[in-house]
Amino acid sequence: MSDLNQEMAERYKNNFLKEIEEQAEMGEWVKMCMQCGLCSGSCPTNFHSGWDHPPQEIFMLIRAGKREEVLNSEGMYMCTSCYNCYVRCPRKVPVTHVMHGIAEYAYRIGRAPKAQPTLHLSKTFWSNATKYGRVNEVQLTQSLYFKDGVGAGIKKGLEMKDVALGLVKAGRLNPLEALGMGHKCKDIKGIHAMLAKAEELEARNKAAKGKE
Amino acid sequence: MTSIVATNQTILVVGGGISGMTAALEAAETGKQVVLVEKNPYLGGRTVQLYRYFPKMCHPTCGLEINLRRLKANPRIQVLTLAEVTGITGSKGAYSVSVKLKPRYVNTNCTACGECGKAVQTEIADAFNYNLGKIKAAYLPSSMAYPQRYVIDPSIIGTPDAERAKAACKYDAVNLDDQEEVISLNAGAIVWATGWQPYDASKIVYYGYDRFANVISNVEFERLADPHGPTGGRILRPSDGKEAKNIAFIQCAGSRDENHLRHCSRFCCMGSLKQTHYVQEKYGDAGKSTIYYIDIRAIDRFEDFYQKVKANPNVSFVKSKVARITEDKDGNPVCNGVDTEGYVRYANAHDLVVLALGMEPSVKGVEIPAEVMSDSSGFIMADPANAGIFGAGCATNALDVNRAVQSATAAALRAIQVVNKVARAEA
């Protein structure tokens, strides 16, 4: 358990709803849920074994103060961002964004599950995209293919060989990206400075919340 | 020409449903002159299209018969059917109103003998039965229509069919030269009682109302259960005419939904609970009803009605808003969703799905030819700036029959106060 997790648990003693409202992005929407179940019913990943709690159950668990159950859940990481729930919600709760908000918060306080594929993709994508200001497709694919070891990576790579060659031929994939070349933003320094500033502001805002 | 006697002490009631009739009767019975304007060729509105009322499960025929008796006995009410208000000018105590009268092509000689209907060959959609069937183009809108006079549909005017209708009439009641006219009348106060319409179900895309024949609306189900309806009161599903014994009711179809109707329509929970009685009545223990709901809002004093339905072993309740309707290979509609009691996913096949559609004010999106205030759902609100026009019934809120009548009585009283003031000023 990280220190931040302890600190947050201490700060929002017995008020997990408030903790989510203040700390998780879009968390203020949790109390708008009226438990109709339309989001869960509309979810395409509903049959997946990792889907232990569907969205409206997570909302109810939050309101019931079940901090451990929610933070131990894998539900919010299973979201594929298809936005079915979001467009259908009768209360216009941005369910997709709330799910991501809770997942991000759990990750921030060190409560994200280990070896969670969605989380792995998010982290990889973020560091990849922010490095050059644009996504480096070759490196992104490599890091995903080789996440389960060299053997598995090579096997997967061979499987997808024809697709990759087709993309290269069509000019949609630049093999030189493997060496850190390929498309980039013009002002990488400027982008990094902006992101650093945004991170700083967000951290400051969130740290200030919930303190008297 | 139609001649109407109306002065600044006259109350104009727009809409001849249960609310408009009530407002007109209450005002006329205190001695006021009333003009009642109705768009349809008959009075009674959506109430006469019901099979039974809740909570007493009696037939609308009964309550309407009483109102019609009061109406016939009262010389102070002038009824205009096939009439629409097209313009209002003036202010409280002195309105001038223009009313468009559509031709009925049948005059007061009509005895409703039905010979014209037999003679005519053209068939048109049966609007009274929500287009579930066809009727002849010379028709009596419903068996208890008031006025009890036939209507000839404008689509056959100028065709040999119209001549057949005229030839068949023994009472010289068919007048094919009938013309549309616009009349102007005075009124001191106006009661706006234009009622409601069911929400457009095809807008709820994931329920497939316009794709699946066996997904119908609550108002259509009323007609299926009614012995005067298109199936003679047998609950037959539209796709293959099979008896529908396993019926799903989906609550909040449109209501309580920011994407559709913002408000709770109030009557639909009781409506579906009532409709489970129809299934029980027709099929006994072989009839099964399933109600999918967010929460049951048996408003007012109807909790005991809900408890009684709940105690019926042939009715089951699933706490879930159905997320999607699909169809299986036998043409059965399948309700898909997650039961929020236990968070279990289900895919239940039924013979027929009834969408408990919410209530939308008829005035929504319609240009009322006067300044009135409306709320975010389009219902008319009391407007202090326009104190001579009053909403009544479902034009003002989502109401059941009982509450609509209360609302109409209140509106009548307000209108009476306005014309009383006019009378004092003119005395």
Question: Could you characterize what this model shows?
Answer:
Chain A is mostly helical and 212 residues long. Chain A is built from twelve helices and no strands. In chain A, helix 8 runs antiparallel to helix 9. With 427 residues, chain B is α/β, with parallel strands linked by helices. Chain B folds into three domains: 174 residues, FAD/NAD(P)-binding domain; 54 residues, no CATH class; 161 residues, FAD/NAD(P)-binding domain. Chain B is built from eight helices and 24 strands. In chain B, the strands form eight sheets. Chain B has a five-stranded parallel sheet, covered by helices on one side. Chain B has a five-stranded parallel sheet with strand order 13-20-14-15-16. In chain B, helix 1 packs parallel to helix 8. Chain B starts with 9 loop residues before the first strand and ends with a helix.
Number of distinct beta strands of chain A: 0
CATH topology of the largest domain in chain B: FAD/NAD(P)-binding domain
Low-confidence stretches of chain A: none
Q: Tell me about the biggest sheet of chain A?
A: none
Quick overview of this protein structure:
The complex is a heterodimer of chains A (212) and B (427). Helices cover 57% and strands 0% of the residues of chain A.
SSE arrangement:
The complex is a heterodimer of chains A (212) and B (427).
Chain A: H1 3-11, H2 16-23, H3 38-42, H4 55-63, H5 67-72, H6 84-88, H7 95-108, H8 117-132, H9 137-145, H10 150-159, H11 161-169, H12 188-208
Chain B: E1 10-14, H1 18-28, E2 33-37, H2 60-72, E3 77-80, E4 83-91, E5 94-101, H3 115-119, E6 123-125, E7 134-136, E8 138-139, E9 151-152, H4 160-168, E10 181-187, E11 189-192, E12 196-198, E13 215-217, H5 218-225, E14 246-253, H6 267-283, E15 288-293, H7 303-311, E16 315-319, E17 324-327, E18 333-339, E19 344-349, E20 352-357, E21 359-361, E22 373-374, E23 380-381, E24 389-391, H8 401-426
Parallel strand pairs in B: 1-2, 1-11, 2-3, 11-24, 13-20, 14-15, 14-20, 15-16
Antiparallel strand pairs in B: 4-5, 5-10, 6-7, 8-9, 12-21, 17-18, 18-19, 22-23
